[in-house]
TrEMBL record:
Keywords: Aminotransferase, Pyridoxal phosphate, Transferase. Substrate binds at residue 343. The gene is phnW. Its cofactor is pyridoxal 5'-phosphate. The keyword Transferase applies. It comes from Mangrovihabitans endophyticus. SUPFAM superfamilies: PLP-dependent transferases (SSF53383). This is 2-aminoethylphosphonate--pyruvate transaminase. Signal peptide: none annotated. The keyword Cell membrane does not apply.
């Protein structure tokens, strides 16, 4: 078979979300027009909130608040709502999204201590303990679970254990891990977990969520409000008590998310993680054969994303444009890695055949790249 004829039947998204979704998820988008303050939406909202809570490893003592907005909205809602006045945050920064958590706190004038570890550097949980012991003011630790800028999976459980030992809380950005990486409100001791519909949960873009304990949500009522439309207690009260969202929701995205969550629960987080891991292993082995260099130690790598250095002499633009023509979207790296690196997601309905096709086309591209091209 000539490589020119090998082309997937659909565009394969290897950007880390939105992902190629199951046809049943897409079909759900065309559900009926409904009013979000009538019983049909209340039932849908209750079911979605319950399913999200279960995916996050919560039980009857936990709840979810679903927001219309991207993953950043959920992270921002948690940070801006949970930190009491006069207290501050300890931010673990080992990539782009850790820094974003810091920048959100900064935008709200929340005092913060930034632990700038360097991209792809493993966290020392004892250091978290020492920092917390040294500053009474810090009430929350902010940490990213899967740092999508490098593909690194951070040890949230160890960091949460340190936080709780010092009687503090953790806010976790699990946007690119929830649904595929093992992580639980109960098992990992997470106080606030922010996630979104369109990454490992394989829903459509437009929805995100914050999960926490019911007691934690209730406690927010006593705190002064920093924001309005991202005020977590406002959303909790509306969704929990009134059974309706505070503001107009993205109804079609809810239809799709409901179906996507059903599929995720049927498959199970462990099985989905194993499916992504098989794709990632296949992809990584192929990349190494083609002269790409993988980032991070094997144990630190998340299943849903692979970051790699391009072979010398091959530019990102060459790979991007060539693979676009072949039906694949590859993703650039950010900031310090922007030069000479790329990122490839293994989320969504991608198959082993898609990965094989990708590697075959990439191999042809690398072989035909003009020598002497700089990266
Ligand atoms: C994708 C992502 C986000 C949120 O991005 P949005 O564009 O707001 O959906 C936040 N944190 C991490 C780790 C992510 O991967």
């Amino acid at each position: 078979m000539s490589t020119e004829t090998v082309r997937p039947p659909r565009q394969i998204l290897m950007n880390p979300g939105p992902v190629n979704a199951d046809e049943r998820v897409r079909a759900a988008l065309t559900g009926p027009d409904i009013c979000h303050r009538e019983v049909e939406f209340t039932e849908l909202l209750d079911r979605v909130r319950d399913r999200v809570t279960r995916i996050c490893g919560g039980d009857d003592d936990h709840a979810a608040v679903v927001l219309t907005g991207s993953g950043t909205a959920a992270v921002e809602a948690a940070i801006s709502s949970a930190v009491p006045p006069g207290r501050g945050v300890l931010v673990v920064d080992n990539g782009h999204y850790g820094r974003r958590m810091h920048d959100i706190a900064q935008a709200y004038g929340i005092p913060r201590r930034l632990l700038e570890l360097g991209w792809g550097t493993r966290i020392d949980p004892d250091m978290i303990g020492r920092e917390l012991a040294a500053d009474e003011r810090l009430s929350h630790v902010l940490i990213v679970h899967h740092e999508t800028s490098t593909g690194m999976r951070n040890d949230v459980r160890a960091v949460a254990a340190q936080a709780h030992r010092h009687d503090r809380q953790v806010i976790v950005d699990a946007v690119s891990s929830v649904g595929a990486e093992p992580l639980g409100l109960r098992t990992d001791g997470i106080d606030w977990l922010a996630g979104s519909a369109n990454k490992c949960l394989e829903g459509m873009p437009g929805l995100s969520f914050v999960c926490g304990s019911r007691a934690g949500f209730a406690d927010l009522e006593t705190l002064p409000r920093r924001g309005y439309s991202l005020d977590l207690h406002r959303h909790y009260a509306a969704q929990e008590t009134a059974g309706a969202p505070a503001f107009t929701p993205a109804v079609p995205a809810f239809y799709a998310f409901d179906v996507a969550l059903g599929l995720a629960l049927d498959e199970g987080v462990a099985a989905r993680g194993a499916r992504y891991a098989r794709l990632a292993e296949r992809l990584r082995a192929g990349l190494v054969r083609l002269g790409f260099r993988l980032l991070l130690d094997r144990d630190d790598r998340a299943v849903s994303l692979t970051a790699a250095a391009l072979p010398v002499g091959i530019s990102f633009a060459t790979v991007h444009d060539g693979m676009r023509r072949a039906g694949f979207v590859v993703y650039p790296a950010q900031e310090s890695l922007a030069d000479g690196h790329l990122r490839l997601s293994t989320m969504g309905t991608m198959t082993a055949a898609d990965v094989d096709c990708f590697l075959e086309r990439l191999g042809a591209l690398v072989a035909s790249a003009p020598t002497g091209e700089t990266r």
